[in-house]
């Protein structure tokens, strides 16, 4: 506890001396081990230099980690391992999807009705990682060309430190078979498992039109959240992404005009979008600065934001298909099956902030769910953050895209829209 107190004292000192930088309080969830993170889990915001929100310190840490070579050693170990399955401390992993699928079939790994056994991709690197985002000025600085080269290689190497592991997906629509009395369409399901299913018949006609999505779909999702969580006082949808591998139009991202573009790639690695620090930082940025907010403008003072965030709030991702999902489904892991597992922090370094996402290593008892052939009226919901830390409710879920081995070879890839929202109580 002395270490925790030292960190809290450091945070307090920074908060007093750098009033322009919000440093989130260190949160430790009851019953969950500390994260695998830099600085003992302390936000990089506390390493602010002249208003840079800790971005210089995070970039230095990224370069130092590359120079140490441990990440490359993991890649070398995997590359030099004999052909076939690779024994890890968590179970047998595989370099390729096809190898893992062959293992699943050879060992008759079966799923319950409505489910499917398939490979999922996890990191095997139990150290914090760093991603310098594409908008960072470092990429355009000729004087930092050597650093940029090293950081670009590191970003490309992330997938080389992953393996495929066998997992079983359960049909989330059958939730009451696994948890008697627990409906997947209930806030109780979200509280217990970190995931749920809602219904929406949207009036949005063109999800590729970012302006229409903001004008029509955002309010629909805010209304859905307030109806789904009857104790909530308000909801804010603040951005969205569109996924369509086969889209033939312009995919260009334009943050200034609130256009996220169209993603051709699906996130095939087990992860979560937020964590203890970034859940609070992201909320504060939206309330007080409208930072990267595509939704309704917010005009909270620092004091008003403090008051609002002193009560319970959650971050929820909502995913709605544009057509019935045939391939590349979006799958979710239930909180109780990993509540005693430390997450691994990935730092996303911007020019003005350091975001934090999380990755996870494999466990055979992770409890995975999907909504097979999810329909356009079905909205899957996953919790990315909950401010309640006493262990009474789920803090988050984690998720990934995957390849359904039971789908026809010509099944179209998933086309859906994902919105991100905060819900306040």
Mean pLDDT: 94
The helix/strand series, from N terminus to C terminus, equals HHHEEHEEHEHHEHEEHHEEEEEEEE
Helix content: 25-40%
Give the structural class: alpha+beta
**What is the radius of gyration?**
21 Å
What is the topological layout?
Elements: H1 2-17, H2 55-68, H3 70-80, E1 86-87, E2 92-93, H4 97-106, E3 116-123, E4 129-132, H5 145-157, E5 162-171, H6 175-178, H7 187-193, E6 195-199, H8 210-228, E7 234-244, E8 271-272, H9 276-289, H10 302-309, E9 313-321, E10 330-333, E11 344-349, E12 354-359, E13 368-370, E14 378-386, E15 398-401, E16 415-424
Parallel strand pairs: 4-11, 5-13
Antiparallel strand pairs: 1-2, 3-5, 6-14, 7-16, 8-12, 9-14, 9-16, 10-13, 10-15, 11-12
Question: What can you see in these coordinates?
Answer:
The chain has 425 residues and is α+β, with helices and mostly antiparallel strands. 27% of the residues lie in helices and 22% in strands. It contains ten helices and 16 strands. It has a five-stranded mixed beta sheet, covered by helices on one side. Strands 6-14-9-16-7 form a five-stranded antiparallel beta sheet. β11 and β12 form a beta hairpin. α9 crosses α10. It is globular, with a radius of gyration of 21 Å. The protein starts with a helix and ends with a strand. About 1% of the residues have low confidence.
């Amino acid at each position: 506890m002395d270490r925790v107190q030292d960190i809290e004292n450091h945070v307090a000192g920074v908060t007093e001396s750098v009033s322009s930088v919000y440093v989130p309080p260190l949160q430790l969830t009851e019953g969950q081990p500390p994260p695998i993170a830099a600085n003992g889990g302390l936000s990089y915001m506390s390493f602010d230099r002249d208003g840079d929100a800790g971005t210089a310190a995070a970039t230095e840490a990224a370069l130092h980690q590359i120079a140490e070579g441990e990440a490359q050693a993991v890649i070398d170990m995997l590359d030099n391992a004999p052909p076939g399955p690779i024994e890890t401390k968590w179970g047998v992993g595989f370099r390729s999807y096809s190898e893992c699928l062959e293992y699943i079939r050879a060992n008759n790994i079966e799923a319950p009705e409505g489910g499917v056994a398939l490979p999922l991709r996890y990191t095997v690197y139990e150290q914090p990682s760093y991603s310098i985002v594409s908008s960072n000025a470092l990429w355009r600085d000729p004087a930092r060309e050597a650093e940029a080269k090293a950081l670009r290689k590191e970003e490309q190497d992330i997938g080389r430190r992953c393996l495929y592991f066998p997992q079983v997906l359960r049909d989330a629509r059958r939730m009451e078979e696994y948890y008697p009395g627990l409906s997947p369409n209930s806030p109780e399901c979200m509280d217990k498992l970190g995931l749920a299913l809602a219904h929406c018949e949207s009036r949005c006609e063109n999800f590729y039109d970012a302006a229409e999505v903001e004008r029509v779909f955002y309010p629909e999702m805010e209304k859905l959240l307030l109806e789904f969580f009857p104790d909530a006082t308000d909801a804010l949808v603040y951005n969205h992404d569109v996924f369509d591998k086969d889209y033939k139009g312009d995919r260009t991202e334009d943050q200034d005009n609130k256009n996220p573009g169209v993603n051709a790639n699906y996130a095939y690695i087990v992860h979560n979008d937020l964590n203890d620090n970034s859940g609070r930082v992201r909320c504060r940025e939206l309330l007080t600065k409208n930072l990267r907010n595509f939704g309704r403008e917010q005009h909270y003072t620092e004091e008003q934001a403090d008051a609002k965030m002193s009560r319970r709030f959650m971050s929820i991702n909502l995913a709605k298909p544009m057509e019935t999902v045939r391939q590349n489904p979006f799958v979710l892991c239930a909180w109780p099956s990993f509540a005693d597992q430390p997450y691994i922090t990935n730092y996303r370094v911007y020019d003005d902030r350091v975001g934090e996402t999380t990755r996870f290593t494999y466990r055979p008892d992770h409890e995975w769910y999907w909504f097979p052939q999810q329909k356009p009226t079905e909205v899957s919901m996953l919790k990315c953050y909950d401010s309640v830390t006493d262990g009474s409710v789920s803090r988050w879920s984690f998720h990934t895209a995957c390849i359904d081995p039971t789908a026809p070879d010509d099944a179209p890839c998933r086309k859906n829209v994902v919105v991100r929202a905060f819900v306040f109580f």
